[in-house]
Amino acid sequence: MFEKICDIIADQLDMEPEEITPQTRIMDDLGADRLDMFDMVTTMEDMFGVHIPDGSWEQIDTVQSLMNLLSEK
């Protein structure tokens, strides 16, 4: 799961997946904005076959918190 998430984030933010760790803060460290986050979460919902309720994705700060949220769904 981690590798797939890194690939999506890297593709969205035009960077290398190897630069991403579970502790990476998506907005602070990678410079993602709210639209980037929305697009990434939507892509991940489709890829993993889950639904993340509106507002839940706004509480994602690190890659690990994103993985945790996807695992819960």
Number of strands: 0
Instruction: Sketch the major β-sheet.
Output: none
Mean pLDDT: 91
Instruction: Report the helical percentage.
Output: 40-55%
Order of helices and strands: HHH
The structure class reads mainly alpha
Shape type:
globular
**How big a fraction of the residues is strand?**
under 5%
Ranges where pLDDT stays below 50 over 5 or more residues in a row are: none
How many H/I helices? 3
State Rg.
Answer: 11 Å
* Amino-to-carboxy terminus distance: 13 Å
Describe what you observe in this structure.
This protein has 73 residues and is an all-alpha fold. Helices cover 51% and strands 0% of the residues.
Q: Summed up, what is this model?
A:
The protein has helices spanning 2-13, 34-48, 63-72. By secondary structure, the chain is mainly alpha-helical.
How do the strands and helices of this protein lay out in sequence?
Layout: H1 2-13, H2 34-48, H3 63-72
Features:
about 70 residues; mainly alpha; 3 helices; globular
